[in-house]
Design brief:
mainly alpha; elongated; about 110 residues; about 80% helix
Length: about 110
């Protein structure tokens, strides 16, 4: 089965072969897919931020301080701490993806 990335590479090669022809349906579809993914990442970011806020409230510690201590091995490896650290990392990753999508949207506008 062909992966999504392989499909995109194929589409890129297809479009590069004759860039003078722009299919408006294809262009609109890609724009909508990018907007959909951006909205999905924004929703994920909100959920992750809510989870992080709950950890901060429960442990009376801001995430930046927690994460520094956790990476230094000072917090232990309780399941909550592993989950909190993972949530922080997931949030950072989601924010990077949103930034990438923002740069594409700026180019489109």
């Amino acid at each position: 089965m062909i992966s999504t990335l392989e499909k995109l590479k194929c589409l890129e090669a297809y479009l590069a072969a004759n860039s003078s022809i722009v299919d408006s349906v294809l262009d609109k579809s890609i724009t909508k897919l990018l907007a959909r993914e951006q909205m999905r990442m924004q929703n994920l970011t909100q959920r992750l931020q809510q989870q992080i806020s709950q950890f901060e409230k429960n442990y009376h510690l801001v995430s930046q301080e927690f994460y520094t201590r956790y990476n230094q091995g000072k917090m232990g490896d309780e399941m909550d701490f592993v989950e909190w650290a993972s949530t922080i990392e997931m949030l950072a990753n989601a924010k990077k993806r949103i930034a990438l999508l923002d740069s594409v949207n700026e180019s489109v506008d």
